[in-house]
TrEMBL record:
Official protein name in the record: RNA pol II transcription cofactor
Record-annotated Pirin N-terminal domain positions: 27-122
Record lineage: Eukaryota, Fungi, Fungi incertae sedis, Chytridiomycota, Chytridiomycota incertae sedis
Gene3D superfamilies reported in the protein's UniProt record: Jelly Rolls
Pfam families, A to Z: Pirin (PF02678), Pirin_C (PF05726)
Similarity field: Belongs to the pirin family.
Top-level taxon of the source organism: Eukaryota
Amino acid sequence: MSAAVTKALKRVVKTVLSIEQSEGQGARVRRSIGTYNLRNLDPFLMLDEFKVGGRAGFPDHPHRGFETVTYMLDGTFEHEDFEGHRGKIGPGDLQWMTAGKGIVHAEMPLGSTVATGLQLWVNLPSSAKMMPPRYQELPKEQVPDAKSDDGKVTVKVIAGSSYGVEAKVHTVTPIYYLDISMQPNATFDQEIPAGYTAFAYTLAGNAAFGSQPSEPHCTLVFSKEGDHIQATTAEGSARFVIIAGEPIGERIVQHGPFVMNTELEIRQAIMDYQLGRNGFEKAPVWESEIGKRAW
């Protein structure tokens, strides 16, 4: 007879409340990772819960060396880049953009509705930092749902897997990105490999992670030890995301929208952008149409 498998729960080792601040041109964000209290959580560089409307937004700006993951909660976001790619994403839609060696793009709200969502920055290993840019765009219908056996927990599987359901995006680094909605008196259980960086970001309600209660707009960082995350609700419902990934373990040197491994590579990225070379050939002469809507 085989021995019973014992789950080792990851424990909460740090909790940080995200305070709303200004970003871009007129946008408001609650920054999780990327603040003084949570500088980097390898392989994650930044997480913003953003709110933009009207003429606010993120006009033309470059990226190199990492990925941006935009997941819409409400409203509609339009994007445009210097390779001619243009589109829009609405509630529940996902855009996974690998900047690689270089991209210049703009992100602006569409119409009069305030757009809200999450944007995650994921580092790339040195071997992939200069890969060609690529997009993976999934409408909400292609972001699969998973459910607990009792039906009290619903998971949008953005990356990785949950309750036997696999995500449709392909990631450079192994990653879990799960949007969890819990009914009252429910239990959520998720396997996350030991050694992975893992955290929760709370959107609504008051789920408890082990013995640690939470409130909206909090980041709860889990221990590397353990191989499961468990959350429970009492009388109220809750919504949060679980994000986890295998650490890259390389040096991070960041200068604004450029993330490389050395100071020399950062200087090279700045020069490439300014001189229009090595992936930024169109940067000096390109201007987005949607960026003109900004103040």
